[in-house]
Design brief:
It is found in: Membrane. This protein has 470 residues and is an alpha/beta fold. The chain has helices at 2-37, 46-65, 77-100, 112-133, 154-159, 198-206, 225-233, 241-249, 259-264, 273-313, 360-367, 376-380, 394-403, 420-424, 431-447, 450-465; strands at residues 142-147, 169-175, 211-214, 237-240, 318-324, 330-336, 385-387, 416-418. The protein contains 16 helices and eight strands. Strand 3 (211-214), helix 7 and strand 4 form a beta-alpha-beta unit.
Length: 470
């Protein structure tokens, strides 16, 4: 394990050096930028150099304190963004305090520190994104083995076939365990036949394993608890397959869930009155701002739908449909009509890709999500949020609750105009598709936060601008 630690330590040192250089450069760039915006002359002096050095030092120290340079940082990108925000905010606070009290002679232009801090946050987030995305320096990449080669372990083989799916780790292989369902298990991945006894510890050390993923089908009487306990004490991470998949794929594997995992798992934060009140206020303001920008498009859409078939059939340009909301309460969702008036004359049907019931105008407004805009009224009513699981029809919910485990848990939060599932799995035309989307919905329910909502909003805007909707 010494060579592995040295390798990771070297990568961390390089990362500190690179980010320190970036911070110092941005602290320098902020000065002429502020001077230009305020139409003043920029000068390079000792005061600027000291501010550059102080800001760089404080940000790096803060980043170290929040764990951004830990050897085995296993964090989602959202978690990394949070840590960057916190580290820069800490540095900003300390520097503001120092330059306004003890070192007043170092005080710069009032806009200098805010500008420098904003630049540092933006550039560090981009740098971490591309370094992680491209696998630069092997940051955050760990060597791991999977304990198990049966049905539970096979989820990795099925869901994470591509190289890009494994950019965060180096999978050494799968270790078969007694009780594994080998017929439904690993088919083409590397199997490692090693006894999970006292010699297992030596195997982990010799192969520089940094993480063990528990994915055996039968745990009782098969897991080497004492060996795993010793490995954990020695610094080797031991994680459950559910936590591993959640971390690496952004979804919760519903068909592998067991009740105790839900009970002891982090997340699934409870709602409270103050949080609900703030949440409604933010959503109402956002809805008002969006309405100010989009009302001309909404008016034009209504006119075009009316001209296409509304004046002939007398059908409304709007479409109201009963949906299941927070805690199973029913409400009427409002959308621009995108299907023929007789689309459901034979009863409720799943929407499908290339649905023949969709009108020409309907296909266009669906592609750019314009048909969803009237749901701003649902947001004003408090029935929906901007971000959340998409609300489903009660006819389908009754069926899905019976066929899909934990399906009803998606109703623990308000439904939304856009959701994590829609970004990661766009179509929902069957029970199987609903199962796949539930994996992402439960991930959102568990990890709901302002930061995740912002990420979903940004990606949804990308879908709308580039017409990636269905």
């Amino acid at each position: 394990m010494n060579s592995a630690n040295k390798r990771q330590s070297k990568r961390s040192n390089i990362l500190v050096l690179l980010e320190g250089t970036l911070i110092a450069y941005l602290a320098y760039v902020a000065h002429p930028l502020v001077m230009q915006l305020t139409e003043q002359t920029a000068r390079m002096d000792d005061k600027l150099l000291i501010n550059m050095a102080l800001l760089t030092f404080l940000v790096l120290i803060s980043a170290l304190s929040v764990g951004l340079y830990e050897l085995k940082l296993r964090e989602t990108f959202r978690g990394i963004i949070r840590r960057i925000f916190v580290s820069v905010a800490l540095a900003y606070f300390v520097m503001e305090l120092l330059t306004s009290t003890v070192f007043q002679n170092l005080e710069m232009h009032p806009y200098y520190l805010p500008t420098a801090s904003a630049l540092v946050i933006i550039v560090l987030v981009l740098f971490r994104y591309f370094s992680n995305r491209l696998g630069l320096l092997g940051l955050g990449k760990v060597r791991l083995v999977v304990l198990g080669a049966g049905q539970r372990a096979s989820i990795i083989e099925k869901r994470m076939r591509r190289e890009v799916d494994r950019i965060g780790f180096d999978l050494v292989g799968f270790i078969p365990i007694p009780g594994d369902d080998r017929e439904s298990g690993i088919q083409s991945e590397k199997l490692i036949h090693v006894k999970v006894d006292e010699g297992f510890r030596d195997f982990l050390i010799e192969n520089e394993i940094e993480e063990v993923v528990i994915a055996c089908d039968q745990r009782r009487g098969t897991l080497p608890i004492e060996i795993l306990f010793d490995c954990r004490i020695r610094g080797i991470e031991v994680v459950d397959i559910l936590d591993f998949m959640e971390r690496e794929t952004g979804q919760i594997v519903v068909n592998l869930i067991y009740p105790s995992w839900v009970i002891y798992s982090n997340g699934f934060s409870s709602q409270n009155y103050l949080r609900d009140l703030v949440d409604y206020g933010i959503n109402a303001v956002l809805a008002f701002l969006v309405l100010l920008v989009t009302w001309p498009f909404m008016l034009m859409t209504a006119i075009l739908i009316y001209l296409e078939d509304g004046r002939k059939t007398g059908a409304s340009v709007f479409y109201k449909q009963e949906r299941v909301g927070l805690n199973g309460q029913l409400f009427n969702i409002i959308k621009f009509r995108s299907m023929r008036p007789d689309a459901e004359s034979g009863g409720a049907q799943w929407a499908t890709k290339g649905d023949s019931r969709v009108t020409k105008m309907g296909g266009f407004i669906r592609k750019y999500r314009i048909d969803e805009l009237p749901q701003l009224l649902n947001v004003f009513r408090g029935e929906m949020s901007f971000i959340g699981p998409r609300p489903e029809r009660p006819e389908f919910v009754e069926q899905l609750i019976q066929q899909i485990p934990y399906y009803n848990q998606r109703h623990n939060v308000k439904p939304g105009l856009a959701g994590w599932a829609q970004l990661n799995y766009p179509y929902g035309a069957s029970v199987e598709d609903s199962m796949e989307k539930l994996k992402f919905d439960l991930y959102y329910v568990k990890h709901q936060s302002m930061l995740l909502d912002i990420l979903i909003l940004i990606r949804t805007v990308e879908v709308i601008l580039f017409g990636k909707g269905r």
